[in-house]
């Protein structure tokens, strides 16, 4: 799939690439490369079998208007850690964490 097709798929599935990224050719190129790496990891990931769990705290952050995943699905992250789990929802779509960096940093600081 070429970059244009990938961007079109992201627009359909996740509500679109944020305008500030789309408007900057360098940022868009970086975003597309990062997205391709994310997809490769997703496609090759094998979940450990059995009762293996992480022993580190997890904070999951999602957008309140995310069309790709809902809060119930995000809550599923609590099943992979024996430590603390926190789910934080911020205003926005799938890319809200990229668009609301200040809020993400506040959450990370608070949860540390």
Write the layout of secondary structure elements.
Layout: H1 3-14, H2 19-22, H3 25-44, E1 58-63, H4 71-75, E2 85-90, H5 96-99, H6 101-111
Parallel strand pairs: 1-2
Family: Belongs to the thioesterase family.
Organism: Rhodopirellula maiorica SM1
Domain Thioesterase: 3-107
Polypeptide structure, described:
With about 110 residues, this protein is mainly α. It folds into two domains: about 1-45, no CATH class; about 50-110, no CATH class. It has helices spanning about 5-15, 20, 25-45, 70-75, 95-100, 100-110, and strands spanning about 60-65, 85-90. The protein is globular, with a radius of gyration of 16 Å. The termini are far apart. It comes from Rhodopirellula maiorica SM1. Belongs to the thioesterase family. This is Thioesterase domain protein.
What attributes does this structure have?
globular, Thioesterase, 2 domains, 112 residues, Thioesterase domain protein, 6 helices, mainly alpha, AB_hydrolase_fold, TEII, 11% strand
Percent range for β-strand residues: 5-15%
Overall shape: it is globular
- Low-pLDDT segments: none
Q: Which oligomeric form is depicted?
A: single chain
Kindly state the number of beta strands: 2
**Sequence of strands across the biggest β-sheet:** 1-2
What number is the mean pLDDT? 88
Distance between the termini: 39 Å
Helix content: 40-55%
Please give the domain count. Answer: 2
Summarize the main sheet: 2 strands, parallel
CA radius of gyration is: 16 Å
Class computed from helices, strands and strand pairing:
mainly alpha
